[in-house]
Amino acid sequence: MPQSKSYDVRWLQRCLKSLGHYQGRIDGISGPKTSAAIVSFKRSEGLRPRAYVGPVTLSRLRLRADQGQPRYLVKSTAPEPLWLVEIGKVMGLHEVRDNAELRRWLASDGSTLGDPAVYPWCGDATITALELVLPKEPLPDATEENPYWARNFAHYGVDCGKVYGAVASFSRPGGGGHVTFVVGYDPARNRYRIRGGNQSNAVRDSWIDGSRLLALRWPKSWPARYQRPLPEMDASGAILSTNEA
After folding, report:
1. Which of 114, 126, 157, 205 is deepest in the core (most CB within 10 A)?
2. What distance in Å separates the CA atoms of residue 149 and residue 145, rounded to the nearest whole number?
3. Cα separation of 184 and 230, whole Å?
4. Is 177 inside any structural domain?
5. Number of domains in the chain
6. Least confident range of 69-78, 81-90, 121-130, 134-143
7. Least confident span in 98-112, 157-171, 224-238
8. What is the pTM of this model?
9. How far is CA 184 from CA 29, 98, 190, in A?
10. Three-class secondary structure assignment of 151-184
């Protein structure tokens, strides 16, 4: 299991808190406050100020947290799903403004649908993030044949329910669908916080109405023991994604 590419979010939050960059709860959820703290820490280290946590950032965190501080050894909860770590590398990239960089990433798994400024690319982003970190994951016939059609992911992996990082397939007004990863849920309004591609033409987080949900799936090759409940969030006043084409 390639956990060296991942990290325990509670450990990350404790390290950032000890260094004065994080003021939120130690809850194991990589949300906006955690992302802001990562950017703050990286800026203080002279690193590129993005919310992505890679090997360099992890080594700097371990070094700084150990300098005059108690070691923040915490009981392991669950590593951040590797596909969320992977898509975190390209968070914020826009299909027009960052076209060349985004196209390189979409093709890095060995295949791509094409220009994201031309084609609906949510499926391309999803399969790229999954294939790069779980290359031995078996794909259903429909997904193997066409991993760019969002509805084909409704049979990917195994059913998992409301789990952080689950692969989520949604219907789309006018036909077709949208596929992404879920990172939060508002039970009062039945709205999901989603992280993926082709959301307002970029890789970003958005809110989507739960009535559109078709399936929540978990990769067969990533142990179920790493699942944790989808965190509850407040989506009041949120602008909902309505058409991701």
Report:
1. 126
2. 10
3. 5
4. yes
5. 2
6. 69-78
7. 224-238
8. 0.78
9. 9, 27, 11
10. HHHHHCCEECCCECCCEEEEECCCCCEEEEEEEE
